[in-house]
Fold these 2 entries.
Entry 1:
Amino acid sequence: MRVSKAGVVGAGTMGAAIAEVLALNGIPVVLKDVDRARVDAGLAKVRGYVDELVAFHEQRAPKEIERIEQLGVHLSVDQQAAVRAKLAPKFTRARGDEVVGRVTGTTDFADFAGADLVVEAVFERTEVKRNVLEALDTVLPDYAVIGSNTSSLSITRLAKGLRHARQTLVTHFFNPPTTLPLVEVAAGVDTREDVVTDTVDFLQACGTTGTPSCRSACGRRPPSS
Ligand SMILES: NC(=O)c1ccc[n+]([C@@H]2O[C@H](COP(=O)([O-])OP(=O)(O)OC[C@H]3O[C@@H](n4cnc5c(N)ncnc54)[C@H](O)[C@@H]3O)[C@@H](O)[C@H]2O)c1
C-alpha cells in the first residue's frame, strides 16, 4: 500500500501519537478534531512527542559518558569523542522540525480528500466512531483504507453498509506508539483480505526512529454479540 497522504481523526493521546508515527515515516498527515482548541492541543502534543525524541537522542552520548565515569573510569578527550561519534543523534532537531511540519491540523473532514489511509482515534463509543466513519466514507476516494484504533468495539458493526466497509479494519496502536511499536490489525467480516495484507505490510515497514519497526499481530475480530 502506497500512502502519500494520511489522516488521523481525534487529536487526543493516541491520535496525536499515531500522526507522529506516520509523519516520522515521511508521510504528510492531516490531524482532525472537533474544534480549533483541540486541534492545536493535538499539534502541541505532536511537537512534545518529537521534542522528547530529539532530547533522547541528544542525551545518549552525555549520559553514556556520565555512566562510564560513575563506574570510576576516567575517559580521555579522545575516548569521549569516540563515544559521542558512536552515539551521535540519529534523530536531530532539524529532522524533528521536518516531522512536525508534515502534520497539519483541521476541523473539517473535507481536508481528508485524496488521503490513502485515515486512522480514527476518537472516543471509544460506537455512535461517535460510526459518525466519524460515515463522514470519512463520503469524503475519501474509493481506494482509501480506514483504520480504527478501537480497543474493543466490533469493526464489522462499525463499518456495516459503508462504501468503504471492505477497506475498513482495526489498526490498534499500543500506547505510546513510538516506544511500543506494536499494532494489532484485525479484519471485520467484510474486510478484504488484500487490504489486511497491505495494511500489515505498510505498518511493518513503518519505523519509529531509534526503536524497532512496527510489529503487527493480525487476526479477524468476530462481531461481538
Ligand atoms: N489511551 C490509550 O492508552 C489507548 C491505547 C490504545 C487504544 N486506545 C483507543 O484509542 C481511541 C482514542 O483514545 P484516546 O485515549 O486517544 O482518547 P482521547 O480522549 O485522548 O482523544 C479522543 C479525541 O477524539 C476527539 N473527537 C471526538 N469526536 C471527534 C470527531 N467527531 N471528530 C474529530 N475528533 C473527535 C476528542 O475531541 C478527543 O480529542 C479509543 O478508541 C481508545 O480505546 C487508547
Entry 2:
Amino acid sequence: MPVVRVALDLPLHRLFDYLAESATSADIGQRIRVPFGRRERIGVIVSVLEHSPLSPEQLRSAGEILRDLPPLSPDFFKLCEFASTYYQAPLGEVILQALPGGVKRIDPPARRTVRRRATSGERVVPELTAGQAAAVAAIDVAQGFSAHLLFGVTGSGKTEVYLRLIEQVLAAGRQVLLLVPEINLTPQLESRVRARFPDCEVVALHSELAEAARERHWRAAFAGEAGIVLGTRLAVFTPMPRLGLIVVDEEHDASFKQQDGMRYSARDVAVVRAHQANVPIVLGSATPSLESWANALGGRYRRVDLPERANPEACLPTIHLLDTRKMVLEEGIGAPVVAAIEERLARGEQSLVFLNRRGYAPVLACPACGWVSGCKRCAANMVLHLADRRLRCHHCGFEARIPQACPTCGNQDIHPFGRGTQRLEAWLRERFPAARVLRVDRDSVKSRKQWEIVLERIHGGDADLLVGTQMLAKGHDFPKLTLVGVLGADAALFAADWRAPERLFAQLMQVAGRAGRAELRGEVLIQTQYPDHPLYAALVAQDYPGFATTLLREREQAGFPPYSYQAILRAEAPLMADAMAFLANASALSKMAECPDIMVYDPIPMKMARLANLERAQLLVESASRPALQAFLPRWREAIERVKAPARLRWHIEVDPLEC
Ligand SMILES: [Zn+2]
Ligand SMILES: [Zn+2]
C-alpha cells in the first residue's frame, strides 16, 4: 500500500509517514487529514513512497486527501526547503505557515463566493521624468533572473517605476508580487495600484486581514487569477503559478524580518525566490540596507539610481543642525525650532515635530529615594501615559495605575523624567494655542481606519502642527508640510547596538523626506549635542552613498556583517542560571561539532535580560564564510536537540539576526 510522507505544523525537524490507499504521485502537494496523537491534523503531502522505513504495523492510516485545490508546486516546496535549511526551521512549520488558516483547519469555515471589488476613479498615468524613464529602461523584466537595487531619493517616484514594470509584466500574462513593510501605513499605494490596473485583480495579503478574506485572496493568487499580490512579509511564500516579477519596496525596513516563530528575512527569501523562479526582482529604497548596498557594490545586484525628485518644483529639503549645547531649551525645544514653527503658522503651512518616543515620559521617578517605575516582569521601565493615566510597559504590555506617592518611601513629590510625544503635544498646545495640534503615534492611531482619517486631516490642511513618531516617517506625501524639527535623535548615536546608526540615518532621511514634497521648499532642523558627528554631516549633505561607504569600511574592519555571517542561539527560562547553563552546554557541544572557521562567543544575558517574567540569554556564532556557518548550524542544532533542557526553558536559533 502506498505510504505518504506528510509535513505537519510541529516544532520538530521531521516528516511523518502514513498509509494512504488512494494516494498517487499526483497527490504530492495536496493537503491530507491525518491522525496525530489523539486528534486529527491537516498536513501537506511532501512525497509518496512505495515503502516506508517503518513496517506497516507501525504506520497509521491517513484520512481523506483534500483535492479541492491544485497541488502545491515543486517551486513552492523548493522555496520552503530553502527557508527550512537556511533558517534552521522545521520544514512542516515553513510549509504550513505559508497556507492561510482556512485551508488547514479540520473544519473549514463555509466559503463565500468572491466579491470582486469594482475600482472607481479615473486612471491617471503621469509622464515619466527622464530619471524614471532611464530606470524603467534599465530594468529588463523579460530577461529572467536579475536583482536590481532601485536607489531613489525620497520623493523620486520609485512607485511610478514599479508601476511601469508591473504593467509590462501583466501585459505578458504574468503575476507580480509586491512586498511592502506595513500595509496599514500605505493605503495610498494600494489605491494607486488598484486605480492603475482596473482590469487586473489585485489582492492584499497581510496579518490584519480577517481569516476568510486572507483565504480568498490567497486562493486567487494560487489559482493565478490575481495579477498582483500586494502583501507584507508573510506573502513572500504565496504560491503564484505565473510569477513574473517581485518588487520589495522600502527594502531596508526592519519589518521584513520576522521576529518570532520562524525567524526569516522576507527580503532575502524574496531574492532567493526570484532566483529559483528565474524572474527579476527590484529592491527599492532611499536608504538601502548595508547588505543590499554591499551586494550592489560587489556586482551581485545592479544599481539603478533615481537621483532627482519626481516633481521638478520640489527640490530636496535643506537640513540644518542646531547645537543644543549653546541654547536654552524649553521642554526640550530650542528657540530656532519655535521661531520656525511660528513662521509656518503665519504662512499657513504645516510643521512636524519628530520625537521617536511615545507616551508622556519614559519613566516616573522619585527624587528622594531613587525609585523608578520599573516593570515587574521585564528589565525595562514602565512608560508614563498621562492621556489615560496609566503606567505601561512597551515591551510586555503590563499596565498599572499611576501611584499617588512613591511606593518605596512615600514621597508624594514624584516626577515624570524625560519626555515623549504626549508631553510634547501638551507643551505645544500651550505654547501655540491657536494652532491645531495633531499627535500621531501608535497610541493615538491604532487601526487602519484611524490612520486613514489622520492622513485625510493632514492632507486637507486640517492640522497645523504634527507631533509624531516614525509612523509619520514612511512614504507619505504631505504637500503643505514644510518644516520638520527633530528632537532626541542623539540617543541612537551611541547605542550599544552597532546597527543603530544605520537605522537612525534611514529614519532621519525618511522623516526629512516628508518636508517640501510639492512646490514649497522644505526645511529640516535637527537638534543635537554632537553637530560634528559624521552621521549628521552625511545627513546634511544627504549623502547616503558616502555614509554607506564609511559604515561598510567600519564593518569590514570590525568583521561585522555583511563581512561576516552570524547566528544567535537564544534561551529563555524563569531563572537566568538555567538559561546560561543551557547555553554553556550548547557552547561545549559546538566544539564537538568540529567545524573549522566558526567562532563561538561566550553566553551573555540579553540587553533586555528579562521580558514578561522570563530571563533571557544568548550566544553568538559567527563565520567569515556563509557555507561554513550553514554546514555547522544543522549539526549543532541536532546536538542541542538531544540535550535535556529544564522544563520551562525555550530556545531558538536565529540566522542573520538584526539585533544582537
Ligand atoms: Zn521614594
Ligand atoms: Zn514589561
